Amino acid sequence: MKSQDVRKQFLDFFESKGHTIVPSAPIVLKDDPTLMFNNSGMAQFKEFFLGNGTPKSPRIADTQKCLRVSGKHNDLEEVGIDTYHHTMFEMLGNWSFGDYFKKEAINWAWELLTEVYKIPKENLYVSVFEGSKEDNVPFDQEAWDIWKTLIDEDRIILGNKKDNFWEMGDQGPCGPCSEIHVDLRSAEEKALVSGKSLVNNDHPQVVEIWNNVFMEFNRKADGSLEKLPAQHVDTGMGFERLCMALQGKTSNYDTDVFMPLIREIETITGAKYAVKASNEAEEKVNIAIRVVADHVRAVAFAIADGQLPSNTGAGYVIRRILRRAIRYGFTFLGTKEAFIYKLVETLSEQMGDSFPEIRTQKALCSNVIREEENSFLRTLDQGLVLLDAVILNNNGDTIDGKKAFELYDTYGFPIDLTALILSEKGLKLDEAGFQEQLQLQKERSRAASKVTAGDWNVIIEDDIQEFVGYDRLSQQVKITKYRRVESAKDGEIFQLVFNATPFYGESGGQTGDKGYLEAQNGDIIYIIDTKKENNQTIHLAKSLPENLTGTFNAVVDAIQRAKTSSNHSATHLLHQGLRKILGTHIEQKGSMVRNASLRFDFSHFAKVSDEELVEVENFVNARIRESLPLIEKRAIPKEQALEDGAIALFGEKYGDLVRTIKFGDSVELCGGTHVANTSDIWHFKIVSEGAVAAGIRRIEAITSEAAKEYFESQAVSLNEIKEALKNAQDPVKSILALQDENAQLKKQLETLLKDKAKNMKADLAKELQEINGVQFLAKQVDLNPEGAKDLAYELGNAYNDLFIVLATAHEGKPMLTCYVSKEIVASKNLNAGQVVRELGKYIQGGGGGQPFFATAGGKNVDGIAEALSKAIEFVK
Fold first, then answer.
1. C-alpha dist (Å) from residue 709 to 306, 615, 642, 714
2. Which of 768, 775, 867 is nearest to 815 (CA)?
3. 370, 345 in Cβ contact below 8 A?
4. How many C-beta atoms lie closer than 10 Å to residue 316's C-beta?
5. Residue 400: closest CA among 425, 429, 435
6. Which of 23, 42, 63, 831 is 20 to 30 A away from residue 413, measured at CA?
7. Contact (CB, 8 A) for 493 and 451
């Protein structure tokens, strides 16, 4: 049973019982100080339980988006480790506000599970509340008696307060509950161990699927219970777990709730999700994929409901969830570029009918997630934090070349930048050690680039492979041959050749298709890339089908193909526009057509001006608006194509028979995939223009969905600017005025701070202490770091035996400034750089500089006092 049908049957069932179906409330709560997020189905109805409002109907049913990142079984760091807990989940619920109570709720739950969903009764267990002396709540005899009419008594379990008294939080509506658990184990496992003993013991196949909560009380702030004005029913059934039970799976992630996301993650990353991991490495990949699949749902729905990632409150929770997903992808899936935002498209398609907000806010979700990914990935790639740690833990004034190479090799941190930062901090780089490691790496790289390819295993003798991808995206195929390829870089890869294929192999600047191969028994083999080799289309996969001689359905990822085709057609129009506006000297020197964007390299003698870029954009978009149909000619003589005005690209290899692509006056020889009509491109937008090499320029551009998202993002930014400027009629003029005003204020501030530093000089001079022939002072001053520097030099000019450490906490950022008179640097063996590196530890930072002047920044303002107290030890 498909998940959409599971959801529909639930709502239809309770509608037949007189319930009004209502939409899900937002996952983000704005007006409830006790909760950041909707963590249960009943949260939106709390006012009705408390008697503070009247519902539209006494009986309601819905499916509610929920988010939990703490509490019982829901710690964020545990999600993805098991197969049945989530951050965001769907809760199917039916509600009675002062209408029916235990009898109806229990009987209907049983009817739906056993008669509609047809879950075998022998697989179900139920629990009732045993009572609590602490809260003076008795054993739930009524629920027990009702269940006795439906199920054998030996399948009824007594539950304690932890398991069978449901509370939304420390305060609020609550009451005893009766849970329904399902045992999904095999018959052999059931025969060995009773499911009853596994209920509420965190067994992955013996799980709670439905909780019937009988709301009778309100938990007050002091912990006491008071009776609610009326008795209510609040039920919640975990949608993902229910789908697991009904689809015969042993993991929530194996259901069609998550598999579309998992398949897309596999397609994007090339990783393989093993239903049953056979080793630790596979399990780490599994966990990472589960984390990403789970977390993108939570983050996207939160953003769609208005909660952007930030550094505080609910926004921090969302950022933390997303960064956990990025970290898992980066570490275990090898994703060094943003990719999670791409999953929003799949999520929108999958859940947009039930939750239309994810569809209408798709662009916003994608843009926000992409920016967050890029921001965090930059932090990971740059390795600045690691470099700071290396400096902080280093003894002496030289950084080991091996450590510097690790930053360079593992994190891509440029060695010249490392050397520059070390120099600024008064440290040296062991360049010889770095070069030694670099040479070893080159030797390893040569070894790693070696590819070992096995022989082709021929299954069917078929010399002619038909490409059908221009006309369709799926095809019944047979594998004609395959081989195993091993490399240190990619590990084991299988290359497959089909008798016919809809997959476009990478060539002509267009990336290869991805997709999957489906066997007749439903098994899936994912095609992670497609190449062309020796006039054959070769499909790359991480594994082989069990039955290599079977017939398979080869399916191209249609979404990615459409985006790639849009970008390829736009590349032709761009080429035409450049030749028309800049001159016929323009020649294509390279291109890269992907699903996300296009890149076009061309010969030109100067930077393309902003005005020229606008002209090019306008030209391409005019061709798009003309709705020019694709006129394609296949297998025509090359000479005829050239006579017809087709452009042949320099450096491309053409056969005697060629294919021409024509959109209006644009005619090119091309073997790539294209849109049927230029209107399918929707819009063309240049995002960058720059030099690649002498005389070669590069334009990068986007089309279709990416262009839509770009303009939506720009519109949001403009509206935010206008709002920040109090809805100014001319925001540009207002911004220029603010910039002028800001520049003037900065000059005034600099003057005032310098005056303040001069005025403080006399006061601080009175506080100097003579210690061992040194004028010593360690003090926090109310200045910015630049002001502290000016003050240090002002005092330094007046003394030749000065040692001072000044601390500032400007805008909450601690900074230590050390000045040592040059006359005593050598005579007293004092070094300002060493001083700030040592004292910087107390403010959780570090720094450096010259022997007579150095600074250190940090994170911990509270450590300033201790740092200043330790400064005196340098002169004792």
1. 17, 22, 38, 9
2. 867
3. no
4. 13
5. 429
6. 831
7. no
Q: Is the dihedral of CA 420, 422, 427, 433 positive or negative?
A: negative
670 is in an annotated binding site: yes
Instruction: Give 106's contacts (C-beta < 8 A, 6+ positions apart).
Output: 143, 146, 147, 150, 178, 212
User: How far apart are alpha carbons 655 and 671 in whole angstroms?
Assistant: 11
Q: Which of 123-137, 553-567, 844-858 has the lowest mean pLDDT?
A: 844-858
* Overall average pLDDT of the 198-209 stretch: 90
Give a three-class secondary structure readout of 301-345.
HHHHCCCCCCCCHHHHHHHHHHHHHHHHHHHHCCCCCCCHHHHHH
Q: Report the alpha-carbon distance of residue 689 to residue 54 in Å, rounded.
A: 60
Give dist(CA 93, CA 236) in Å, integer. 5
d(CA 402, CA 384): 16
Q: What is the pTM of this model?
A: 0.48
Rounded CA gap, 181 and 121, in Å?
A: 11
- pLDDT at 88 (0 to 100): 93
DSSP 42: T
pLDDT at 651: 42
Looking at every residue in the chain, the average pLDDT score rounds to 88
Tens of pLDDT, residue by residue over 722-768, are 888 888 888 889 899 999 999 999 888 878 877 777 778 888 999 99
Task: Give the model's pLDDT for residue 410.
Answer: 65
Residue-wise pLDDT tens digits, 160-193:
998 999 886 677 788 999 999 999 999 999 999 9
Render 240-293 in DSSP notation, one character per residue. Answer: HHHHHHHTT-SSGGGSTTTHHHHHHHHHHH-----SS--SHHHHHHHHHHHHHH
